[in-house]
Amino acid sequence: MASMVLFNEVEESYIMIKPDGVGEIISRFENNGFKLKGLKLFHCPKQLAEEHYKDLSSKPFFPKLITYITLGPVVCMAWEGVGVVASAHKLIGATNPLQGEPGIIRGDLAVQTGRNAVYGSDNPENGKREIELTEWTPVQTPWLVE
Ligand code: UDP
Ligand code: MG
């Protein structure tokens, strides 16, 4: 029941296009009616990548994951909308891109688990925390404030 309530809330999700990802990922979220609140290109330092994925630090693939995320710039985005966290998971699809159906981002735009193109927050609390972690400034701020 609690998850149903959350699904009707306006939420924020941190969506990150990983170094191998492509710009088409942005239009997938746009086309679903979500609001892009902020966006930046960012070469993530190793230490912040380790903090972002700290829950996976004991996994055997962790060193390779950190190498992957720090290979080149990522696109950090804050997306807002009703149920955006759960919808983003549906749009992004399974961790292994080969399990993705047509129309699902990872299924269409990626091939390997270790190069799966995009990240999305696990829950609304993480969405807020991850957006703060990358020191978010909404993209429209300089248009609104002199
Ligand atoms: N990953 C990997 N090998 C694995 C599992 C995960 O390289 O066997 C990488 C992959 O890039 C994945 C990330 O670690 O997106 C985080 O793993 P998680 O299980 O949280 O998958 P996600 O939530 O991204 O689908
Ligand atoms: Mg995950």
Describe the 3D structure.
By secondary structure, the protein is α+β, with helices and mostly antiparallel strands. The chain has one domain (2-139): Alpha-Beta Plaits (2-Layer Sandwich), CATH 3.30.70.141. The chain contains eight helices and four strands. The longest helix is centred in the C-terminal third of the chain and has 10 residues, at 124-133. The protein starts with a helix and ends with a helix. The mean pLDDT is 92. It binds uridine-5'-diphosphate and magnesium ion. Uridine-5'-diphosphate binds next to loops. It is found in: Mitochondrion intermembrane space; Mitochondrion matrix.
| CATH-level-2 architecture | 2-Layer Sandwich
Q: What is the 3D shape? A: globular
CATH topology: Alpha-Beta Plaits
Q: Domains counted in the coordinates: how many? A: 1
Radius of gyration: 15 Å
List the ions, cofactors and other small molecules found in this model. Answer: uridine-5'-diphosphate, magnesium ion
Describe the strand arrangement of the main beta sheet, using strand numbers: 2-3-1-4
Return the structural class: alpha+beta
Average pLDDT, rounded to a whole number, is: 92
The count of strands amounts to: 4
Question: Helical amount among residues, as a percent range?
Answer: 25-40%
Element-by-element helix/strand order: HEHEHHEHHEHH
Largest sheet: 4 strands, antiparallel
